[in-house]
């Protein structure tokens, strides 16, 4: 949902009329703005609601004359790389040049200190990461997703986001292991029979682990940092019920809205860049919740 300025609460308006969050001159200001934005989101969140937060990281460029600081691009984003501005890095004077800043954890701990319950860190493993021309460290192939809650007890549907079992617990693997066991025993398992029930009674799914291997998705339109839909799905399935309202304060091209609508949820969202309105309407057109002039 795209709010027009006249419809935005006064305490939220300043986030829609100034430069994007992520372009602050200091790390302290960025973290403070993130805390304030999510404090306002917390007022809208149901008492048993949850927040899923994905943030990328960056390396410090303080004192490195051959590296520029950010100049119109959010650090560590696909947009910066696409515009050949990936050398525009944040400059944090309290850190050494080339230090990993730890932005995701700094923001997560700030939210925790402000009253959010920090429940889990999830690793988004990217099997197709963006290439990096580095020779003194590994290519970055993961990001963090944090699960935070408003209260000690909150809604979380673990059944809805279970993952396939591994190591022989699915029917397919169970049947294969049964055949191998029968072959090893010459066709004689319990009771002298060659029949096995492996794979027929074993569970096919398990509680989702905290490392999610999900490839990035290409997106042909003018947005360089879209989520893969498979990354959004488990968050919505676990954190909401059908018919609930999903709120995305950084709507972008509308991936969260599209997935929410497909999974039977309503959605609302905020986005600073008016160029994304057509993208959002193309991906998720929902009657009743979209405000237009």
Plain-language structure description:
- This protein has 293 residues and is of the alpha/beta class.
- It has 2 domains: 5-57 and 102-162 and 207-283, Rossmann fold (3-Layer(aba) Sandwich); 163-206, no CATH class.
- Helix content is 28%, strand content 13%.
- It has 8 helices and 8 strands, in the order ααβααβββαββαβαβα.
- The chain has helices at residues 10-17, 27-44, 78-82, 103-113, 171-184, 229-239, 255-262, 277-283, and strands at 50-55, 117-125, 142-149, 163-164, 205-206, 211-213, 245-248, 266-269.
- A 4-stranded mixed β-sheet has the order 1-3-2-6. Strands 4-5 form a two-stranded antiparallel sheet. The chain has a two-stranded parallel sheet with strand order 7-8.
- α7 links the parallel β7 and β8.
- α6 (229-239) packs across α7 (255-262).
- The longest helix has 18 residues, at 27-44.
- The chain is globular and about 45 Å long.
Annotate the secondary structure layout.
Elements: H1 10-17, H2 27-44, E1 50-55, H3 78-82, H4 103-113, E2 117-125, E3 142-149, E4 163-164, H5 171-184, E5 205-206, E6 211-213, H6 229-239, E7 245-248, H7 255-262, E8 266-269, H8 277-283
Parallel strand pairs: 2-6, 7-8
Antiparallel strand pairs: 1-3, 2-3, 4-5
Helix pairs in contact: 2-4, 6-7
